Amino acid sequence: MLLTLSTTHTPATDLGYLLHKNPDRPQSFELPFGLAHVFYPEASAGRTTAALLLEVDPVALVRGRPSSGGQGGTLDQYVNDRPYVASSFMSVALSRVFGTALSGRSKDRPELAAQPLPFSARLSVLPCRGGESFLRRLFEPLGYTVTATRHALDETVPAWGDSRYFTVTLEGHVRLGDLLSHLYVLIPVLDDDKHYWVGDEEVEKLLRHGEGWLAAHPEREQIARRYLRHRHSLAREALGRLAGDEAPEPEERQETRNAEEAVLESRLSLNEQRLQTVMTVLQEQGAARVVDLGCGEGRLIKALLKDRRFTEVVGMDVSHRTLEIAQDRLGIDKMPDMQRQRVKLLHGSLFYRDQRLTGFDAATVIEVIEHLDLPRLAAFERVLFEHTRPGLILLTTPNAEYNVRFTSLPAGTFRHRDHRFEWTRAEFEAWAARMCERFGYTVRFLPVGENDAEVGAPTQLAVFAR
């Protein structure tokens, strides 16, 4: 079975440092079930590919096991697909051979290990119980572009139809450690089998390698059940702990942090200016159906509902509690029927495509992206620009250059303790340009707040149109 990992990061040969494997020296590793070989079919500054080839010894798999009895004896244990397809053997090899990279560490290139890079992973033969649709439901929400070619049962006998085996290529802008973690967990999930006993320690492995992505994955229940070989008690434990990990920040703490940011910006009335600017652009562009992603407590929704030109207003947020506050503040239960039909609140994640979000004239993303972890930004980009794909996108974010004008804000700190980053105008414009080039939009920028001649406006607004 063969897995290849390719990158076009410059210089691409840095992949050797990330994997801790020298491109100039093929290596072999003994495993309990056979040998793992690592070599580089190509290694240049423009593109480098590392290959992990497993040679599974079918005799080693059954050595010491009692006969299964019945017709054929142990023949079915010797003659099967295990030496040829990606399965839990590949997961074990990833942890043994690329363990440091899997953990997200690199001694020689720590900064590269911590940042998303362009990667392509190819599995020559991957069993997919559940077919291509299940394969896509596992990997596409993580931000990958999936290419799958299904193999026939026998190319010489077309009447036999297709097999459950695919050649699969995953392409994405992702940290190497995250890519390896996704493969480690999801390969045996697709195979729906494991070659070893599954006990309590497998729950710990699932939670460790699923940290940061599994809790919010739309297929997390199926992933947990299959990864744990349908041992219901273990799956319940894993899902229960995931639910705890996914729980939103305690309401009191989040409200305190929001209040800190509100006090910081209150002198400028920035929130009101943001909402008014967004409203004006939506009105000028004639948008009637609007979805507010990361709607929070519904301030923009409330403003939109006052204008009858907006015939449908939908808000989505990941926090149940925040949506409850929004519902109370909007007074949805007390609205007349005609008014209530114009508004809807949805619980959902910004990282996974959602059919409920398609077909809108405009999407607003107000002071949201700076709260997203950079490694997951790529997934959000695809959800917004590729899958939701409204005709108009209005997106605001702080202008980091303006922070020096907040005298109470210590140098080098963000406006909100939950911000993962704050971009300068040049950084924001460069990101927006990449989105336009990649997804077929145009963009213009508007200042929000007083436009300081030296550092710009406190808030940046990008208006994307297609």
Automatic annotation (TrEMBL):
<keyword id="KW-0460">Magnesium</keyword>
<dbReference type="InterPro" id="IPR038546">
    <property type="entry name" value="Hen1_N_sf"/>
</dbReference>
<dbReference type="GO" id="GO:0003723">
    <property type="term" value="F:RNA binding"/>
</dbReference>
<feature type="region of interest" description="Disordered">
    <location>
        <begin position="239"/>
        <end position="259"/>
    </location>
</feature>
<dbReference type="GO" id="GO:0031047">
    <property type="term" value="P:regulatory ncRNA-mediated gene silencing"/>
</dbReference>
<dbReference type="GO" id="GO:0001510">
    <property type="term" value="P:RNA methylation"/>
</dbReference>
<keyword id="KW-0479">Metal-binding</keyword>
<keyword id="KW-0949">S-adenosyl-L-methionine</keyword>
<dbReference type="InterPro" id="IPR029063">
    <property type="entry name" value="SAM-dependent_MTases_sf"/>
</dbReference>
<feature type="domain" description="Methyltransferase type 12">
    <location>
        <begin position="291"/>
        <end position="391"/>
    </location>
</feature>
<keyword id="KW-0808">Transferase</keyword>
<keyword id="KW-0943">RNA-mediated gene silencing</keyword>
<keyword id="KW-0489">Methyltransferase</keyword>
<feature type="domain" description="Hen1 N-terminal">
    <location>
        <begin position="1"/>
        <end position="243"/>
    </location>
</feature>
<comment type="similarity">
    <text>Belongs to the methyltransferase superfamily. HEN1 family.</text>
</comment>
<dbReference type="InterPro" id="IPR024026">
    <property type="entry name" value="3'-RNA_MeTfrase_Hen1_bac"/>
</dbReference>
<dbReference type="GO" id="GO:0046872">
    <property type="term" value="F:metal ion binding"/>
</dbReference>
<dbReference type="GO" id="GO:0090486">
    <property type="term" value="F:small RNA 2'-O-methyltransferase activity"/>
</dbReference>
<dbReference type="InterPro" id="IPR024740">
    <property type="entry name" value="Hen1_N"/>
</dbReference>
<dbReference type="Pfam" id="PF12623">
    <property type="entry name" value="Hen1_L"/>
</dbReference>
<feature type="compositionally biased region" description="Basic and acidic residues">
    <location>
        <begin position="250"/>
        <end position="259"/>
    </location>
</feature>
<dbReference type="Pfam" id="PF08242">
    <property type="entry name" value="Methyltransf_12"/>
</dbReference>
<dbReference type="InterPro" id="IPR013217">
    <property type="entry name" value="Methyltransf_12"/>
</dbReference>
<protein>
    <recommendedName>
        <fullName>Small RNA 2'-O-methyltransferase</fullName>
        <ecNumber>2.1.1.386</ecNumber>
    </recommendedName>
</protein>
<keyword id="KW-0694">RNA-binding</keyword>
<dbReference type="InterPro" id="IPR026610">
    <property type="entry name" value="Hen1"/>
</dbReference>
